[in-house]
Amino acid sequence: MGELMLGKRVLVTGVRNKWSIAWHTAEALHREGARVAFSVFGEREEAGLRKLLTDSGMEDAPIAHCNATDEAQAVALMETIGAAFDGELDGLVHAIAFANRDDLSGEYVNTSREGFSVAHENSVYTMVSLARAARPLMNKAGGGSLVTLTYLGAERVVPNYNVMGVAKAALEASVRYLATDLGGENIRVNAVSAGPIKTLSASGISGFDGMVKHVAERSPLRRAVTPDEVGDAVLFLLSNLARGITGETLYVDAGYHTMGM
Ligand code: NAD
Fold it and tell me: Which residues, at least 6 apart from 90, have a Cβ–Cβ distance to it below 8 Å?
């Protein structure tokens, strides 16, 4: 076990199963001595998480339910986490995204108003409301670090990513605005832009396997990125090693974003 996060209290959102990027992040945090708490969407996610926790020696970790689009649930979540962590929080991992499956294939021009709103409510506004709700706990801790997950489809056209690419662009802009709002309180806000990884959410994107293959063939490292590599980068941004970094998007994609073609 390492000591990079010894004494740090971190809330991890977005674990659905063992493939989730959030789960690999939690494992990295645990390895480095952090106290980890979890927020999951509902009963189904909690059942899966409990088994993962038992298998990895984290069975005592606090678990709360939160549909993060519900403002009241976000506030209640932070009350629960505050009670578990003496009113303080050092880190928050936002690994939440959702869009209707119909909006992740075909032409972006056909995105419905409702689909546009669903993607932005779940994938962007949840970051804003969780940051606002976590702020008092991080203030009490003397500062903190928030990290979200994004994807290259925010800045380049990736076939079928569509409305989620537009939502990720808004998420990356939100990171910069939140970093500016909260920086005076020693709260840092960053994003990790992960290469394609086969998770449950990713499987909703039409042609996803082809995206992974394409990256594996074209990236400088000539392979796809693994979820534990993404988890380690999130860990870095949460840690004191990244104390001078905020408002940043860090690419963990085997270097794919640097390629011209
Ligand atoms: P995942 O399906 O394992 O995780 C997505 C999580 O979001 C689930 O746990 C789900 O319950 C949660 N969620 C959705 N709406 C919610 C809401 N309203 N309230 C609370 N929780 C909600 O998939 P993942 O790939 O690990 O996704 C995690 C993050 O990583 C997402 O932001 C995703 O866009 C991002 N990302 C994924 C990839 C990839 O290729 N898998 C690449 C770059 C970025």
Answer: 8, 9, 10, 138, 141, 143, 144, 145, 238
**pLDDT band for position 75 (cuts 50, 70, 90):** very high
Residue nearest to atom 8 of ligand 1 (CA): 14
Q: What is the extent of the structural domain holding 180?
A: 9-253
Strand order from edge to edge, sheet including 91-94: 63-65, 35-40, 9-13, 91-94, 144-150, 187-194, 249-252
**Residues 132-143 pLDDT 10s:** 999 999 999 999
Q: Are 171 and 124 in contact (CB under 8 A)?
A: yes
2 within domain boundaries: no
Contact 66, 74 (CB under 8 A): yes
Mean pLDDT across the stretch 184-192? 99
Q: Which residue's alpha carbon is nearest to atom 30 within ligand 1?
A: 149
Identify the CATH number of the domain in which residue 145 sits.
Answer: 3.40.50.720
Average pLDDT for 158-185: 98
- For the question of whether the overall pTM of this predicted structure is more than 0.90, the answer is yes
Residue in 108, 125, 151, 256 annotated catalytic:
151
